[in-house]
Amino acid sequence: MTETGSFGGLSVHLNEPLSHYTFTQTGGPADLLALPTSVVEVQQLLTEAHAQALPVTVIGNASNLIVKDGGIRGLVILLTKMTEVTCDGTRLIADAGARLIDVTEVAYQAGLGGLAFAAGIPGSIGGAVFMNAGAYGGEICDVLASAEVLTRDGQLTTYSNEDMQFAYRHSLVQDTGDIVLRATFELTQQPRPQIRAAMDHFNSLRASKQPLDYPSCGSVFKRPAGHFVGPMIQQSGLQGHIIGGAQISEKHAGFIVNLGGATASDYLAMIHYVQEHVAAKFGVALHPEVRIIGSDAAKG
């Protein structure tokens, strides 16, 4: 049974395995894991962490994430309980912990188009804004109006789309460490059947091409300019390769799946293996799209 304690007046989990939360089902323990339900609670947690000089790591839905086997020191804040989504005219406002899949459904119900590309992305709003998530020709930067963030010193501020300095799989908050709490999207009125058709189309593409029947961290590598990652991995003869419990997916070579019992170290070894072989064959450097955090497991 998970041991709990108090931190900043809030209940936290102690030495909690993050493999219970990551989509890869890998990752070591968090010293302290908090699941706040409001902005006020996030502020409480940051204030206490600052007072105790503890490092803070913020996690969204843990879908495009690898937590190393040694876990994460200090306080980990998981935002999955902050999930409110509302619509105001053509604007949709979503808390950071809301799942993209759920948010696209709310947009559909309200007859708001523009988010269909994200219908099958398993991440959270906060994570999607953090990494400027995208698929099938759409990106978060195309529809984000503003993001409400909490700075690391506990100040609330709002960034416009321009302020966020979006680029391919990048945003300002990756550099500043600000915590995305809420996002406002500017969408367009569309007939609901048209929105549903687009959502169904993208979900069908995803199901036909991606290994949804195994745990994974999604697309592992950023796409290099002028190249496609999957075909390069295939042409390097790597598809299906196994290290420990991790395998380069036989369905889509851009994914690494957990066949059962994989560790984060298996994933990292596979990433390095792919990088070395693709660089040797094509002279192309692959860079991870997946976020890799935490400490290595102690040796011995």
TrEMBL record:
Statement: the UniProt record of this protein carries the keyword NADP: yes
State which Enzyme Commission number(s) the record gives.
1.3.1.98
Q: Name one Pfam family in it.
A: MurB_C
Q: What is its main location?
A: cytoplasm
**Native species:** Lacticaseibacillus yichunensis
Active-site positions on this chain: 169, 219, 289
Q: Which cofactor does it need?
A: FAD
Q: Which GO terms describe its molecular function?
A: UDP-N-acetylmuramate dehydrogenase activity
Q: Which residues form the FAD-binding PCMH-type domain?
A: 25-190
Identify the keywords attached in UniProt to this record, alphabetized: Cell cycle, Cell division, Cell shape, Cell wall biogenesis/degradation, Cytoplasm, FAD, Flavoprotein, NADP, Oxidoreductase, Peptidoglycan synthesis
Q: By its UniProt entry, which InterPro entries does this protein fall under? A: FAD-bd_PCMH, FAD-bd_PCMH-like_sf, FAD-bd_PCMH_sub1, FAD-bd_PCMH_sub2, MurB, MurB_C, MurB_C_sf, Oxid_FAD_bind_N
The text of the family note is: Belongs to the MurB family.
Q: Which HAMAP family would you find in this protein's record?
A: MurB
Record-linked NCBIfam families: murB, PRK13905.1
Q: Where in the cell is it found?
A: Cytoplasm
- This protein is called what? UDP-N-acetylenolpyruvoylglucosamine reductase
Q: Does the keyword NADP apply?
A: yes
